[in-house]
From TrEMBL:
Keyword Membrane part of the UniProt annotation: yes
The protein's name in its UniProt record: ZINC FINGER DHHC DOMAIN CONTAINING PROTEIN
Chain ranges passing through the membrane: 12-34, 54-72
UniProt keyword list: Membrane, Transmembrane, Transmembrane helix
Domain of life: Eukaryota
Amino acid sequence: MAWNVFKFCTALRALGSIMIVLVLGIIGVTYYVIVVAKYGPALFYGGLDSFDAFLVLVLFHSLLVMLLWSYFTTVLTDPGGVPPNWRPSIDEESGDADPLNTKSVENAIGLNLPAAITVLFVGGVY
């Protein structure tokens, strides 16, 4: 009997929806603080701070548009999957069964190391 571990992922979908709402809430609070509470009134009342508030608001809104565009593009893009007729190559299937040996490491990095250094390098002794 094959175990279907993906049936346990349905709770993760609900958690993912909660995370989307959480991120949008953080963006909304940031928008309120920057635009409504801080720089909106400065722009509305005029004075010397009006020009600075205008520059900050233009910069903030341009960054906000880019943030939301990137976020929704990431959230709404299908992650894809493994093609139906894909098979791992023979080397990948036997990769765990073949232990590293000294000569293969030396040949891979192109060095002819002395035996003591090779043992330290390959054996994992630091």
